[in-house]
Amino acid sequence: MDSAYQGRYEPRMFVAVFDDVEQVPPALDALRQVGVSDEFIQVQTGVPYASSILGRPKVLSAVPKYGLTGAFVGFLAGLFFTHGTAALYNLRVGGFPLYSVPPSLVLLFELTMLGLLVASFIGVLVESLLPPVVGKRVYHPAVSDSAIAVFFQTSRLLADEARQALQSLGAREVTEVEGSFV
Amino acid sequence: MSSEFHPRNEEEARRIEELKREHLLLDHKSRAEMNDMVMEAVLDTSRDWKIAVTVLAVVTAVSLFGAWGYMMLKGLGLAGIRRPIFWGLFIVSFVFWIGISHAGTFVSAILRVFKAEFRRPFTRAAELMTTFGLAAAGLYPLVHLGRTWRFYWMMPYPNQRWLWPNWRSPLLWDFFAINTYLIGSTLYLYLPLIPDMAMARDRSTGWRKKVYTILALGWRGTEQEWKNLQKAIQIFAWAIIPVMFSVHTIVSWDFAVAMKLGWHSTIFGPYFIIGALLSGIAAVNVVLFTVRATTKNMRYFIRPEHFDALGKLLLIISLSWAYFFFNEFILEWYGGEHTVKEILKFYMFGDIAPVWWTMVSCNVFIPGLFLWNRKFRRTPWLMFLMGIIVNIGMFAERYVIVTGALSRNRFPFDWGWYEPRLVEISIVFGTFTLFLLLYTLAARFLPLIPVWEVEEGQHSHTWRRVGKAVLPAVSDLESLD
């Protein structure tokens, strides 16, 4: 296989920048028609847009699972503090139970909630891969000015067709960029 | 998002302009323009600002840390707390600052849960109050310890004989509740800040760029990032509300679990919570007015409509506080317990009466008299003044509850009178300047306006025509999946 042939088929990363969200769904349809499937497209926005607005596959989040796990761990920590430590060092005081439920509820509640909150925060970082550890990830600074950046990966062979389609649909710029989605 | 709407005639155009002047979320500006406005405010470290920071830092160092250090050196005897009044100005201020810290969560979380759109521009300014209010409150248990260096005795780990702290002690409940709330509210402040940190990263240079880059955590605004962030904000908004309620309930239990007449009341939990919300919302008015008056471009973001909405909330909460106060007062009065009657008589006609009447006037009479008036609520400087008045009232409330109840006990030989000493006044003054210092620094470092949330709100607000009238219309974009 010669290098020119290889170059035409090697996947490259491109970005199309739009100013209005209304331009994006038709642009994504155009990309699909050119042959770029959704898994090779990433949309970056300055405000959250639902998948149904952009016409993208539904995005799911595992953050609630982290939260629930954290709450459970927090609850167990609370149980250990309020009941476990009482068993570790028995202090029998006349008229008072060794394990007292009502005052334990305060600590159990606080530690359960602490676990829930901290784990949800960690969930955002882990699930969003923040902060990035290795490699350069694609980003367009115009996103923070509310532009919508559509990154897509395709071969140079299809790139011209995609570029023309996107520009005709209002893309401010379509350029080749370095980097990966994640 | 295109929101083009063409008025049919001059009358319609005039009406639209009027509504735009009134409502931030109808007065669309481009994101780039709003970013510029917010960053201009952040980068405005003028000579006046530097002088203000220096003065506040020096006053805080001397008044708070100087006085505290001196008290540690000489002993807690420097404070005015004497038998039978062992809780004084330190505990009063502790409860006061915990109350202030409730505003951020209330404004941000509850209004977010209820999708109250007017919250958008000032959630962060209020959340910052929570974090800094808790920082100020957190100092007081340490100050009040006297031997501050023994604070680690409250940490949850065993001593050399494997004896753990007493989990049934309200002091330990305080420790856990305040730390849970501090950690939770700081994370809740930080989460929606991440996209704005990315905006600041893209628009700054030098050391600021480095710091913003670290704080933005490599945020890019991908669909997955937004989804995770929104889910987490949703979880935080729901979960932080019961945490907020628990904190002030537990603070109230510091008093209520004691077998002390005047404190031992089942209504203390909700009574303290409503008091905290009253002082907190009042403090949001003070902060918003100050930010609006001293920070560039804030008049666009913080408008009379926001003071109006907060004024209504303040009125409702003031009435609720009056309801709880009346409930507490009237039942104790009719209970006929001799010592309780002595306490109530002391409140109303004794030496502490000026403080008690200040409390009633500032928390009920004055807000009730003025906050009905729309024009009053829409005048920022008047709402600032109202915020100060209510907070004087709430400080007085805590002063009466803490020191007043301790002044009257079952036997007259155990009665007393508390006078705060200079070292206590200095430390309390120092925490006020510490709060101001932290806020002044934050105002020039963090984007005080959550720009992406404002833009999201502006996208949701459009116009529609019903018959001959033009009305603003709100689409619930947040609930789309």
Can you tag this structure with a few keywords?
heterodimer; A: 182 residues; alpha+beta; Alpha-Beta Plaits; four-stranded antiparallel beta sheet; 6 helices; 14% strand; elongated; B: 481 residues; mainly alpha; two-stranded antiparallel sheet; 18 helices; 2 strands; 70% helix; globular
Task: Give the distance, in angstroms, between the N- and C-terminal Cα atoms of chain B.
Answer: 17 Å
Sum up the overall morphology of chain B in one term. Answer: globular
Roughly how many Å is the radius of gyration of chain A?
Answer: 26 Å
Strands in their spatial order, largest beta sheet of chain A: 2-3-1-4
**Oligomerization state of this entry?**
heterodimer
Topology-level CATH name of the largest domain in chain A: Alpha-Beta Plaits
Q: Helix count of chain A, per DSSP?
A: 6
SS content category of chain B: mainly alpha
Strand content of chain B: under 5%
Secondary structure: number of strands of chain A: 4
Average per-residue pLDDT of chain B, rounded, comes to 92
Number of strands of chain B: 2
> Which segments of chain A are poorly predicted (pLDDT under 50) over 5 or more consecutive residues?
none
Uncertain spans of chain B, ≥5 residues at pLDDT below 50? Answer: none
> What is the architecture of the largest domain in chain A at the second tier of CATH?
2-Layer Sandwich
- State the shape of chain A: elongated
Number of domains of chain B: 1
First-to-last CA distance of chain A: 30 Å
Architecture overview:
Chain A folds into two domains: 8-59 and 132-177, Alpha-Beta Plaits, CATH 3.30.70.120; 63-127, no CATH class. Chain A has six helices and four strands; from the N terminus they run αβαβαααβαβ. Chain A has helices at 3-9, 24-34, 51-54, 63-88, 101-127, 156-168, and strands spanning 11-18, 41-44, 148-155, 173-177. Chain A has a four-stranded antiparallel beta sheet with strand order 2-3-1-4. The longest helix of chain A is centred in the middle third of the chain and has 27 residues, at 101-127. In chain B, strands 1-2 form a two-stranded antiparallel ribbon. Chain B has one domain. Chain B is globular and about 80 Å long. Chain B is mostly helical and 481 residues long. In chain B, α4 (89-113) runs antiparallel to α5 (123-145) and α13 packs across α14 (353-370). Chains A and B meet through β2, α3, α4 and α5 of A and α2, α6, α7, α9 and α18 of B.
